[in-house]
Amino acid sequence: MTTGATRTAHGSIALPPPEAQDGASRFTRLAEGIDVSPFLAELAAAPDLWHADTSRQRKVRCQRDTLNIFLRVARKPLPPGAKNANDVHESRTARSARGFPTALTFCEGIARLQEGELGRATLVSLQPRGWVRPHVDAGAYYRPRDRFHLVLQSRDGSPLTSGGETVVMREGELWAFDNKATHDARNPTDVARVHLIFDVLPGPGHGYYVSPQS
């Protein structure tokens, strides 16, 4: 697992090259010590948005212990032949993103570092003692994209397992991980765990855990 990412004096992030990662690991820690207070301030200013759209926890059973604020979502209507959003490559900025310029700018910045294109982005609160059940992010959308987690609030760290490997993500850390393998997440505390989760379609030579697009 690579932990050698660096940050400039201005706080920007330099992602380690994909070839620097441990090829046997499902996880790559890309940066640490990120100041998450501006992200949390945006969340504190709009607490009602956690309950504005409950479709994910209602319709996706493995996510039923979460609350979500959507920043970027699949473009609708679905194109011909698409069974669901997992087959849709195009994304759009959600209305709720207007209250989260810091979060959206951060996601866009990581996409630029990968010389790629930002996909979907969501603020996710895993409720106290909650569990995101084991699942695979399957479909044409996920295969060519990297999945990132920025930990905004996690009192004792965020255990996440992918492909039988478990890490504990800490506040202020940015991770990429293999969401194409079976994975699950737990919150063993009595305080909500909040992550900024987003996807990037990386430019050539920049992907960490991508599969060929089909």
Explain the overall architecture.
A hairpin with a 2-residue loop joins strand 9 and strand 10. Helices cover 12% and strands 33% of the residues. The chain contains three helices and 13 strands. By secondary structure, it is mainly β. The two termini are 28 Å apart. The protein is globular, with a radius of gyration of 16 Å.
Topology:
Blueprint: E1 6-7, E2 13-14, E3 27-31, H1 37-44, H2 55-59, E4 66-74, E5 91-93, H3 101-113, E6 117-126, E7 131-135, E8 146-153, E9 158-162, E10 165-169, E11 174-177, E12 183-186, E13 193-201
Antiparallel strand pairs: 1-2, 3-11, 4-5, 4-6, 6-13, 7-12, 8-11, 8-13, 9-10, 9-12
Brief summary:
By secondary structure, the protein is mainly β.
Q: Any idea what the CATH architecture is? A: Sandwich
Domains (count): 1
Strand order of the largest sheet: 3-11-8-13-6-4-5
- The Rg value, from CA coordinates, equals 16 Å
Quote the average pLDDT: 91
Spans of at least 5 consecutive residues whose pLDDT stays below 50 are 1-10
> Largest sheet at a glance?
7 strands, antiparallel
Distance between the termini: 28 Å
Number of strands: 13
Oligomer: single chain
Order of helices and strands: EEEHHEEHEEEEEEEE
Into which percentage range does the β-strand content fall? 25-35%
Percentage of residues in helical conformation: 10-25%
CATH class: Mainly Beta
Protein structure class = mainly beta
List keywords for this structure.
mainly beta; 4-stranded antiparallel beta sheet; disordered N terminus
